[in-house]
Design brief:
This protein has about 300 residues and is of the alpha/beta class. The protein is built from 10 helices and 16 strands. Helix 4 links the parallel strand 9 and strand 10.
Length: about 300
Amino acid sequence: MTNMKAVRVHDYGGVEVLKLEDAPRPQPGIGDVLVRVHASSVNPIDWKTRAGYLKAYMPLPRPFVLGRDVSGVVEATGPGVTAFKLGDEVYGLVSGAYAQYVVAKQSDLARKPRSLDHAHAAAIPLAALTAWQALFDKANLDRGQKVLIQGGAGGVGSFAVQLAKWKGAHVIATASSRNQGLLREIGVDQPIDYEKTKFEDVVRDVDAVFDTIGGDTQQRSLRVLKRGGVLVSVAAPPSSEEAAKFGVRAEFAITQPSAAQLAKIAELVDSGQLKPIIDTVLPLSEVRRGHEISERGHVRGKILLTVD
């Protein structure tokens, strides 16, 4: 078998450029694993890439296949692969998962959480790694500290809330009126309805802010940090000069694959301390609908794509 079905983009544009078609099946090289994809997900970076918003920073050869999250089964391994064998269930942060098969570095994969099916496991890699690296690698969040999570009901934000609670932090989070119940369900100590309350009116002296929103929300967030605190954004690079005016620091986090972090995250899932929040589950053939939902914003958790 040399071909597979994949959603390819031949030119930047709207959802109409997402085409499910025959494509060459990738072959694993040295240190690579060929994964039979069972599920992927739709992340904001997918539609931003598709629309061409990132082409100046992340040029891609065309046609290209989107999809960063994968959960599936090892189909074949390249020379030098020792971590996995044929038939292993794995998940990870990859490139090109809107397809029946994807090739990944063995260092970018970990064993799938045993307690989840592939669809739910595919909700985890990009969002959970983003939250982990922002909170722990950039903000150095620790037990007893206070953190404000902007957008706590989203895919990344909901993992950030749960990871911060696992670490022992006091968690404040913002969300819309309809998601206040979800914030409480996942452990937020102080939920804030941004439709009714300005967060800066009720929050002060936090150790860290995790920003998934950007724009005016990011700017206003600097005011609620204690001196020496840190704002970490995954939405847009914050201004170090503006942060310095408040005696705080500002960081921009770019998510990196990490098998070790994924393995720890899988442990937390299997022990019941972490769970993905699911908004919508669609077959790969309805990927355009998934992009439309994501582009509208206010997604509650993750949009998943199942692959036959």
